[in-house]
Amino acid sequence: KYCVYFVFDADSCLLLKNVHCPDRCVAALARVERTDFLHPMFIGEVAHVSAEITYTSKNSVEVQVNVLSENIVTGAKKLTNKATLWYVPLSLQNVAKIIEVPPIEYSSPEQEEAGKKRYEAQKLERIETKERNGEIIMSISLPEPYTVAFSQSSLIHLVGPSDCTLYGFVHGGVTMKLMDEVAGIVAARHCKTNIVTASVDAINFHRKIKKGCVITVSGRMTFTSNKSMEIEVFVDADPLVEAEKGKYRAVTAFFTYISLDKENKPLPVPPLKVSNAEFMYCDIGILMNIM
């Protein structure tokens, strides 16, 4: 599962930098659309990854990625993951400068119009997500089981050279891996069983994270159904060297987990207990699942 995050990011990034944009640039991951884990990929299987640019705006590129697994003994192949990623090309001379993207040729006007609608929809959702994710997690001593406070979790990580691109910014795959780990901890604390990722709602990368930052990855339960748990995860970055800039919200996403028994069959999920103070952001989770 973790490898998939890096594959999505690295393969799409290379496609953008080496194939489509003629100017020398660094591809900054801006958003990952909803990702579904369709089938498991097992140890010893071969991963086949394909990426294709499907839409370009003036300053961004949509890349669709498919991951297939191959059993090298039987030759059987299956689609395990697919995702849509949005990248913004930045100048190597000045990473604050966004480079214009050459347009691609579409097979039909309808294909271009469909791509434009996807672009406008993700742009609007990014703005809405950034506005509603301003709260921080407050710690509570001795919280009641099955409450938001009982399972909320955080990881603190110092961004080092191995986490970054050649240009000193964190790989999107590194951030996604940490976010999934935190979401998994939240889910495990809530139901005390084996848990697996079922899907990931859109991951929005609001701002770049530089080498040397301390990032806090926080997760909290926002919704439970009979068989699934929705967990909100966000990443705050604190630039130690440039402390005067202050901490900022860098990434946000929602993860969906399911609980499994020893035979890997779905188990009922304990209902989430919500206090009045927690109702506002948990209500967002309820509305998202109804819609």
Question: Would you give an account of this structure?
Answer:
There is one protein chain. By secondary structure, the chain is α+β, with helices and mostly antiparallel strands. The protein has two domains: 2-132, Hotdog Thioesterase (Thiol Ester Dehydrase, Chain A, Roll), CATH 3.10.129.10; 148-290, Roll (Thiol Ester Dehydrase, Chain A). The protein is 27% helix and 34% strand. The protein has helices at 2-20, 109-132, 148-151, 172-191, 279-290, and strands spanning 25-32, 35-37, 46-56, 61-70, 77-91, 153-158, 194-200, 203-205, 213-224, 229-239, 248-260. Strand 3 and strand 4 form a beta hairpin. Helix 1 runs antiparallel to helix 4 (172-191). The longest helix is centred in the middle third of the chain and has 24 residues, at 109-132. It is globular, with a radius of gyration of 20 Å.
